[in-house]
Amino acid sequence: MRGFSSKLRGRVAAGLLVVSTAMIATLATAQKAQSTDLTTPSFLVATRDLQDPLFQHAVILMIPSTEPQLLAGVIINSPAKARVRDMFPQARQLKSTQETMYLGGPVEPDEASVIFRASSSPGSATRIFDDAYVATGHDAVAGVLKDPRFADLRVILGKAQWLRDQLYSEVMRGAWYVVPAKSDLVFSDPKDLWSTLVQGGDLQEAEAGQAPALNLPQWRFDATN
After folding, report:
1. What pTM was computed for the model?
2. From CA 214, how far away is CA 138, in angstroms rounded?
3. Domains in the chain: how many in total?
4. What is the pLDDT of residue 8?
């Protein structure tokens, strides 16, 4: 992955999370995981040893990639200084937590995407999991921002991207915890997201008896903006 450099530690295992009704509250006792599975909806959570300033304390939501040989994700806990209305002046009134754009990663930093919740696929959006969707490109994002049906959303600039072998190596060397993704976490207050998730990863790592196998996704789709 671009910008990746740090002294990393050994074994990694997946965390198991519970979510409170309003925001992240507590972690249930983790169950031992026998695999690190990116074929299911996942967060990559930076471990404490990852010191790269681009990804330190990052929580990355894995999203479908437009290129079969690449894996992609967006950082969801790094608010930017720019407001959504700076790029999309015609956007409807948003919640205070949605007024700010987010920095999704160092790749294509000027390209906007929006992650949002919907009961069914709207237009060119792609389903990530459950009721979470992503749309990429200025026109697609503008369409979501104008639609009052979408109450939960994040506008994100850029993304993180890996060759498959790169991500495999980083996870196996201890750069990332792989944690099941939940919609409530995606759209929660980003302030304490990393600290909550990394605690679960630390606990799971302490309980793991062996290095995990890594299952990588075979995503392929055609994007229309």
Report:
1. 0.76
2. 34
3. 1
4. 31
